[in-house]
Structure formats: structure tokens, C-alpha cells
Amino acid sequence: QVQLVESGGGLVQAGGSLRLSCAASGRAFSSYAMGWFRQAPGKEREFVAACNRSGTSTYYADSVKGRFTISRDNAKNTVYLQMNSLKPEDTAVYYCAADRTLRTWPTYDYWGQGTQVTVSS
């Protein structure tokens, strides 16, 4: 069992930056691949970024490639999403997720409660 808690969301102007954190409790955090997803009002949850258990392999949606960076610190049981050059279309609730298998679709076993990111134009 893994419990996930996101933080770091907020309101930012277009072009600004935010860093999301996702703290995991439970055992064997390093046994899980981690992903970030987002869901805007009226839209389906979509993949943003993911990394493997060690953080050495990362994957990004085309819409965020070059602007967002996923990383993890297994000693701190935390995964991060650094978001730069934010755009209004990045506005959404952002969720972190954990699973034994890395995927780019939202079928992860464990989910956080989400954190709101709002980008004003």
C-alpha cells in the first residue's frame, strides 16, 4: 500500500514556474514507477510525465516536453514535477500516481488527491 500526497500547486502567470511535490508513505517507494497526470474541467485525465523506479528513464507528453521535468528522490520518498514556461492550457488538477509498472495511461494502482494548478494569461 502506498499513500501519496501532492503539494506545490497554486496560481501563476503565464511564463512562470511551479514545482509540484508528491510525498509517498508506505513501504518500498523505490519499487514503484511514478507518474504525473492532469485533468482539466470537462476533460479526461491525461498523461503528463513518468519515470522508472530509479528515475533514470523519463517520459513526457508532447505538450509538456522541454518545459516540464520529472525527478525523484528515493531517499526522501518524493517525486517532483518542475514546470517551467507555463501556459494557460496547463491549468488543471495535477495528480501523482504509483504503480509497479511504468505506464503512460491512467491505470496506476495508487493515486494522490490532486493539487490545483492555475495559469493566468
- The counted number of beta strands is 11
* Quaternary structure state of the chains depicted: single chain
Strand content: over 45%
| Averaged pLDDT | 96
Helix content: under 10%
| Broad shape | globular
Radius of gyration: 13 Å
- Please mark out the parts with pLDDT under 50 across 5 or more consecutive residues, or reply none: none
Q: DSSP helix count?
A: 0
- The string of secondary-structure elements, in order, is EEEEEEEEEEE
The first-to-last residue Cα distance is 40 Å
Largest sheet descriptor? 7 strands, mixed
By secondary-structure content and strand pairing, the structural class works out as mainly beta
Task: Kindly describe this structure.
With about 120 residues, the chain is mainly beta. It contains no helices and 11 strands. Strands 2, 4, 5, 6, 9, 10 and 11 form a 7-stranded mixed β-sheet that branches. Strands 1-3-8-7 form a 4-stranded antiparallel β-sheet, with no helix packed on it. The radius of gyration is 13 Å and the shape is globular.
